[in-house]
Amino acid sequence: MTLAAAGLLSACDLGMNKQSRYDTEASADLWADGAAARHAADDTIAQDDPASARPAVTPALLTRGRERYAIYCGPCHGESGRGDGIIVSRGFPAPPDLARPNLGQATGQHLYDVISDGYGIMYPFGDRVAPADRWAIVAYLRALQTARGGDAQPGPGA
After folding, report:
1. DSSP state, 99?
2. For the chain, does the N or the C end have fewer beta carbons within 10 angstroms?
3. CB-CB contact of 125 with 118 (8 Å)
4. What is the SS3 string spanning 24-79?
5. Distance in angstroms (rounded) separating the CA atoms of residues 150 and 81
6. pLDDT in tens, 39-82
7. CA-CA distance, 14 to 69, in Å (whole number)?
8. Is residue 32 pLDDT above 50, yes or no?
């Protein structure tokens, strides 16, 4: 009897290799729309998405952003963001004034991506500036734009 039970169980694959599942474009009677594939819930952010690390704007964040800006951005963009940094005085092409209207209307995510990946002749800083520091720089850029009379969108995530 024990031998027969062992023989029957050995024929069953109790592992997770063969689970019932839906193929990508399959239909499922479980849902009213009949689709097996489901959309992510609103406001869902992937774990590895840098947007998930967007911090709240605080005085400490702005201080950190100013420090990081001075180190990484100031040599080209200048202290006030006018594009008159020390590198420009040595012959490097001038970057745009950060208070230009189109840059004030750019989303925080766009500015974050430009810092990460570079743009035009701007070098990418994604490998040198931590994601949290990139958001701090974006928050400081918004404060700098506002202080110079620009029409910047609020907050680093805007």
Report:
1. T
2. N
3. yes
4. CCCECCCCCCCECCCCCCCCCCCCCCHHHHCCCCCHHHHHHHHHHHHHHHHHHHCC
5. 12
6. 777 766 666 665 556 789 999 999 999 999 999 999 999 999 99
7. 57
8. yes
Closest by CA to 145, choosing from 50, 86, 69, is 69
pTM above 0.70, yes or no: no
State both tokens at 33: 């729309």
Tell me the CB-side half-sphere exposure of residue 10, using CA atoms within 13 A: 6
Residue 122: strand, helix, or coil: strand
Better-scored residue on pLDDT, 108 or 149: 108
d(CA 112, CA 156): 9
| Among the listed residues 93, 116, 92, 107, the one whose alpha carbon sits nearest the alpha carbon of residue 141 | 107
State the DSSP H helix or E strand holding residue 111, giving kind and residue range, or none if neither. Answer: helix 108-117
